[in-house]
Every structure is written in structure tokens, then in C-alpha cells.
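tool_call predict_complex ligand=copper (II) ion
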Amino acid sequence: MKLFSKLYLPIILSAAFFLNACTKDEAVTVDPTAQLIKLTEGYATGAATKVLVYTESSVINTGYTRFYLQLKDSASGADVTQAQVMLMPMMDMGTMKHSAPVENPVSEKATDGLFQAASVFIMSSMGGSWTMTFTVRRPESGKRGSLAIPVTVTDPAKATVKSFTAADDGQKYFIALIEPAQPRIGINDFEIGVYRKATMMSFPADSALNFTIEPEMPTMGHGSPNNVNPTHAQLGHFKGKVNFTMTGFWRVHLDALHGTAVADTTQYFDIEF
Amino acid sequence: MSRAGSKPFPVKKIILLIGTCIGPLMLFAQQSLPANPFTDSTRFIELREVHLQARTASPQQRLVNFYRGNASFTLEDIMARLPEVSFQRRGPYGMEPSIRGYTGGQINVLIDGMRIYGACTDKMDPPTIYIEPLNLDHVQVQTGQNGFLHGSSIGGSVLLKMAEPKHDEEGNLHASVSSGYSSASKGWYESARLHFGTGRWSFLANGTYRKNQDYRAGGGETIPFSAMEKANYGFSAKYRLNENLSVKADFLGDDGWNIGYPALPMDVGYAAARIGSLSIQSEKPKQGWTNWNAKLYANRVQHYMDDTHRPNVPMHMDMPGLSKTYGAFAEGMRQTGQRHSLRLRADVSSTFLTASMTMYPPNEVPMFMLTWPDHRKMQSGLGAAWTFDADSNWRFQANARVDFITHRLTSTDGKEEVAVLGYDTDGRNDLLSNLSLSATRKLLARSAVFMNIAYAERIPTGSELYGFYLFNAQDGYDYIGKADLLRESSFQAETGIKGIVGNVQRVRVSYQLTGFASYLDNYITGIVEPDLSAMTIGANGVKSYQNLPWALQAGGEASLSGALHKQWQAVVTIRYTYARDDQGDPLPFIPPLKSMLSLRYQPGRFSAQAEWEAASRQERYAIRAGEDETPGFMLLHLRCGYSFPVSTSRIGLQAGVENVFDTFYHEHLDWGNIPRQGRNVYIQLNLSF
Ligand SMILES: [Cu+2]
Ligand SMILES: [Cu+2]
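tool_result ok
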């Protein structure tokens, strides 16, 4: 009996896999927002455009957050696939205001009907109130308008954005952990976004730093082999590999340097899975 | 002589026990082969077994039969008395057999021809633990030229043959029960055996139960975490199809609870093995293919380690392991003419291994990892032994074996974990070839000189390929496998002389003297990886398995057994092994010079036996493997027995004192220098009808 089930199970499973794969192929083009959560929708008044705002999670945490915008013509209701989209996060702390790092859509053309952007919320709504303003400019009409939404940002259990003042140049940097989003035992992508605080309102991506990483399990005092230090890819994103030999609580230490000049050696990201 | 212990030793009791030593060791009685073994029908079964063995009794077999007498002996106790064998000991039970210093993946341990792999990443469960002397028919240790016939190996094979039911035209029912007590471990031993046979059907059932407490070492110290409890039970049914053919179904189960391993940081909470097989076999030697049998088998070993009884555990952890093997083989022998004979064995097997570790830190998520990433080993092999009797003086033999072995990681989790070490995760394929040639020249006086040369290869073990931070308590390092290890191979030569001197009726001495040497290529050992950080809290670092360019191993064994008027029997064995690596450093786990002398007096129903065991100091130790110098020791054991018939049944009594002088000692292969058992007084009662 066991032998039969052993033989049959893979056959059934592989058959199911193929069937599944076929249906998936057909389903792929249907709805690009299927895996996303609709945060809100509203009108970018002035641009005659309806803006539907999607995120990957209904809870917005401090750290790197992706926004997916679906635009529709407010008159015809037709999908808008050509537009210039800009994000402006703003925190009002009562006595002062500041912005945060943003990544506007790289293209004026929508991908799968969506404009993808991101923002790095550098503090939670405990310190004030966040407003995110989406500005849309329709190239064919030249019309421009904005939608401003309040955003509630909470602190996650393990911080995914860190900041430090560099020892060598005195500048303030923000580092956001992007990957691993779904950590697991094995080789994980390691990706961080690096931003320099130029002014209270400007946080440009930075590619001048270089980094070394070292994962550690503080509870046991061990690390892991064959990690790859993140190097600059584009737009302040640094990519490397981090290896986890087991599940549990990991601390990935991060040293930042300018060439050989040490900028900071105190930062780390805690990852628990 | 005895050292001041925590408790005064009851000398009076010993004297009393020795004084009431009342019976020949039942098996001794059988194995010394009274003139007509078939006169007493109640002893038919065992006697016939002995009779069958006697035809092929090698010096080694004679030793096994000699030492089998103590029914409380485990298989380990018996095997440890063979000059070729020693044991790596992590606890009083579950010792890992080693042949001439070869161990683990360098040797095969087969039960009735079946492959069975331990489910413990710390090697707590070698297959030898599943065979109790009660269900053992015989054990054979194959070295040198024959070592690889049952599976590619450089160090030889331990073949364990389980007892099987015998057909009996008279339809008799036989039963025996035994009970025993050992003082050093306050241990109980209970066993029962039931046999029923008819002309067509025959059945054999047996069970053994052992429960020991923490044992007392020489001098009186109690060794913590050395207790154990286990049950072993087997059932076998045979049906005779015709004169020459029978089919057989066997089941063997083994359960262990709270088995202590004082040299390791963990014990066994529960371990279970289920071993089943179906076979078809020829019953009597005939023309054409003789002694052939074919078997289909499956086994499953589960292993759960436990640290909940240990003090000062930094973090509680679970370490379960699973091993599943199924396979089939056929083997047989063919005589062509008077001069040629051919033995063939074809086998296939598939083994799945997985093991994991989960730690439970306070206020954090559990930490989990696969210590054996899920993997499957598939093996198919063909072995052949061709013997040619050139004339009445010369015999030549050529043995060959090929094995095709594949390893595959079977799960994404396993592959992703192995990828962390930078290894290829597609698995590996290996073709292994083994070849040996031997010549035997008859001399005068029933003696012969023999000489053989061999080339043999072995595949790295699952731990050596894919082990993931396996803690080794002996050297304190975490071990990781290396997926692209080269095969270890050996060029070996063996030579010796053996024979029988004297007359069967009065004085008879059989002797064997063997010398051997092998040159190992790509010797596999653990090498420190300074850049890796140890996973285990408190470990010294990480080692990975790597190939050393070469190693050398050489040694010799001698055994002498003599009988005088059938009332006196003496057995002497002596052995020595020398081993070094390419740097000139000694290899680990190499036993020192060791000798054993046993003397038995058996005038009739009564028997008495003295055993003297001596090991020299081992100065050649491997610092790299965490070894240190081991002092020499001498031990004396005294045993006696008496057996007598009561109507249709027979009662046997055995008693003895082991380690009479309560010597505080450990052997060189004992991990952690944990002292062995001190003075032990045992008594046993056996009833059979
Ligand atoms: Cu860990
Ligand atoms: Cu274990």
C-alpha cells in the first residue's frame, strides 16, 4: 500500500502541478492588484484622475513601504497608463515638519496598469501625523493635481529602518531594510535602501557608502558562512546575500564605510523567523 | 585490592554466590558439542544451530560461540572479545563497532544481509543494538579481501545472522525463559523464546527486556546518565514450499527509553526500530546454485534525543532523527566441478535520512535547523567471489564488487540549507570498484599460509557529505559535511598462517596469526575551519570533513584456542594496530595492544571460567580528535554455571563476578574518559522446556 501511495502521489501531484500551472498562466493578466491591499482611493483634483492606492499590507510600518497606484480618468473611467506620479510624505510634529525618502515611479508608463513607488517612513505616527501626497500630471492634457491621504505608521516588532550620523562626514544617513522580506533558512537576498538627509525635506538616495554585513544569533553567539556584502545596484539600493543556518532570532550587523574611512559600525537589523 | 568506594563491597555475598555457582553455562554445554547432539530432543533447536555452524566454524566463530555463554552479555560484549573488533563508547550501551580501527562509514554492519542506518546524528544507534544474543544465530566479521563483498567498504563488514525457526516433523513446542540481575548497574535482564515447528510451518518468537540504573565504576563512583531501558522483540515464520525451498517472514522491533550517554551532552528519550523482511531461500545444498536466498526488506529507525534530565543545559533542545531504508538482494553460490566455485550477491537499497534540531530560547521564537538535510541514498551493487582450487595445496580466490551510488537532497529546505555552505545541491553519483586477489597454500599438519591484496573504496557517509553543525563531544567541534568529498580508498595487504595442531580427542590447538597493512588514499577526517563560527554554545569551533592525502594503518592479530580432554578449554587473543596520517600524527580511535586469556573448566554439568583482559597504555593518540593518553589496565572476570534436567525441562544457573578487583579504568576508544563498570556480580536463571 505504502509503495503504491509513494508511486501515485508524485504522479498526482505533478499532474496537479501542470493543471495548476496552466490555469495560472491564464490568470496572470487578469488582475495585477490581486495580491495587494487597497488602502484608499480618491481624486487628484485638477488632473481629472481617480487614484486608487494599493499597498502590500494593510498595516503600514516604519521602513521601506511600496505604494502601487492605479489611475483612472475621472470622466471616462478608462485606465490611465501614461502619467507622471510624484510622492511627498510629510510628517507634522507640531513644532516642525519633515519629509522622508521617496522613490517615485521610474517611468511615466504604468506596468501592468500600476505605477509603483515607495517611501521610507522614518518614524511612527506616535511622533506626529503623516500625510502622503500623490501628485499626478497627465502628459496629454498637461493637467496636474494631487491627492493627500493621512497615513498611520506603526513601529514593527523589529525595526527595519535605522539612522546614524557618519563619523567621517558628519552627515545623517537613513538605511532601510528591503530584503529579506520573507526570511528562511538558506541563502537570502539582502537589500537595503540608503538615503542621506540633505535637508528636512530632501533625502536623496546615496551610493557613496560601502557596507559589510555580519549575521549573528545573539542568543547562541554564532554567525553564518558565505555572506555577500551588499554593493550598490541603483537608486541607493545595495544588494548582497545573507545566509541563515537556522530559524530564530538573527541580528545582521552592518558596518558603513567611505572607502576605508569608517562612517558607522553600530547599526544592525534584527530578523526573527 | 578494591579501592575505597562510597559503599563497602559485600565480600561475603560474592563468596556466597561463587559458592553456590551451580551450573554449566547452558550454551557452553551445547557448544562444546557432546558426542551425540540429538539425544536430548528438548535441546534440538539450539543444538542443530550449533551443528550447522560447526561445519564452517572459523577461529572467529569459535570465539563467538565460546563467549556467547554469558546470557546477560549484549552483542557488544560478545563482539568486543573478537580480536578484530573494538568499540567507540559514548555510553554503556549503543557502542559503535570498529574493525581494526575502521569505523562508521568505513565498515558495513548488515543484519541478515539488510542495510540499516542509524537515525542519530551523534551515532548513538549503530545497527548492532538491534540484535540481542537471544535472536542471534551467528556473527561474522569480514576483513581484508572479503570485507567488501556485501557492500563497498575499506574496513570490512560485520554480518549479523538472526536466528530462524527450524522445521520439525514432530511438531514440538519449545520455550525458554531467562532472568538475570547485575549488581553494578542494578540491572535486570529478562528474556523469553518460543519455538514451534511442523513439517511445513515453523515459528520463532523472542523477546528481551533490559533495565539498568546508573552503573557503578571501579572504586565506587556512580556514573550519572548511564542508565537504560529497552525491549527487543522478534517474530519469524517460515513455510516450506518443498524439500529445497522455503519462504520466510521476519519482524524485529526494538524500543529504547531513557538511554544514557554519559560522554555526550544528551541522552536518548526514546528510540524505535522496526525491521521487516520477506525472503525465499534454499534449504539444503544441492546441485547448481546452492545456499541461495533472496530478500525484500524495509526498516525504519526513529530517534529522539533528550536533555531534560541534564543539569546546566544552556537551552533546551529537541533533536529528532529518522532513517528509512528499503531494499532487496539475492545471493547464492555455485559449484562448477570440483575446483571452481562462484559466490554472487546482487543488491539494491534506498535510504532516506533526515534529522533536525530545535532549540527553545526563553522569550524568542524557537530555533530550528536540519542537522541532516533531507537526503536519499540509492545504492545498487554486484559482488562476486570466485574460488579456484588449483591442486590439493593451492587455493586462489578473486573477489570483486561494483557499486553505483547516488545521493540526492530531497527537499527545497534541505537544498537551501546546504547552499549556505556554498555546495552544489544537485547531489552526486559515484561508481565504486573493489577488487581482491588471494592465495592460500596448505602446509603440513592441517595448517595453511594465506596472503591477499585488495583495493577497496567507500562512499562518504550522510554526515560527511551533508551533516550540518553536528556537535562532536570528543573534540568539542561542530562538524559540517562537504558535499564534494572524494571517495576514501585503500590498498591493503593481509597475510597469515592458521591451522590446527593436535588430536581431536585429547589435546587440540587451533591458531591463527594475521598481519595486515593498508594505505588509505583521501582519508576523510575533520579539519578546522577557522572562518566558521560554531553553532553549539561552548563549542571550540567548526570542523569540516576533508580528504587528507594519505594515511597508513597496519597491525596484527593472533588467536590460540586449545582443548584438553574436553574438560579444559583455553582461548588467547592478542591484537595491535598502528595508524598514522600523512603528517605522521596518530589516527584517532585506534586501540592499543590488547590481550585476552580465557580458561574454562567443564567436567560435566558444572563449568567454571576465568577471563583475563589486559590492554597496554595507548601513547599514540590523536590530539586533533580530542584524544589523550589512556593508561593500561588489567581485569579479571570469573564465571560459573550449572545446569540440570528436571523431568522434561532443564534449569540453568549462571553467576559470576566481572572486574573482580574493581579496577578503575577506561578503554582508549571510550569518549570522555568515562570510567567503565566496576566490580559486577551477576546471577542468572534459565528455564527451558
Ligand atoms: Cu543558532
Ligand atoms: Cu542520538
